[in-house]
Write a structure and sequence with these properties.
It contains 3 helices and 4 strands, in the order H-E-E-H-E-E-H. It is an alpha+beta fold. The chain has one domain: STM4215-like, CATH 3.30.2000. Strand 3 and strand 4 form a beta hairpin. The longest helix has 18 residues. The two termini are about 30 Å apart.
């Protein structure tokens, strides 16, 4: 069974990014469970090298739109997102840091807690 906050949220982030950023090469992905007194989630650091002739244009478009983008995470949401676009050589690289939070109902189901209705 995969751990939701880190593994599944990272996969959901990449799935949501793919239509906007592809084609790309995933250079690095680091996701770690995170929790505060009130929330459970994960912190993610991704590095994507954009491929193709229109890579620079896609990088600029993502720089402008990604912070406001709605992410389709199953049972959670993106609470914070930072994006850095760099160009080592001619290929744009997106550095993405994100905090995902697991929704309370998803957490309760995962833990086997039932709501009293």
């Amino acid at each position: 069974m995969s751990r939701w906050p880190a593994d599944r949220a990272r996969d959901d982030l990449l799935r949501t990014l793919t239509p906007h950023a592809a084609p790309f090469t995933l250079l690095a992905a680091d996701s770690r469970d995170w929790a505060s007194a009130l929330f459970v989630g994960a912190r993610h650091r991704l590095a994507l090298a954009l491929d193709g002739d229109d890579a620079a244009a896609r990088a600029e478009r993502l720089r402008d739109t990604l912070p406001e983008m709605e992410f389709d995470l199953r049972g959670g949401f993106v609470a914070d997102l930072q994006l850095i676009v760099s160009r080592p050589g001619d290929q744009p690289v997106l550095g993405i840091e994100a905090l995902t939070i697991e929704e309370a109902e998803t957490l309760a189901v995962r833990r086997g807690v039932r709501r009293a209705d």
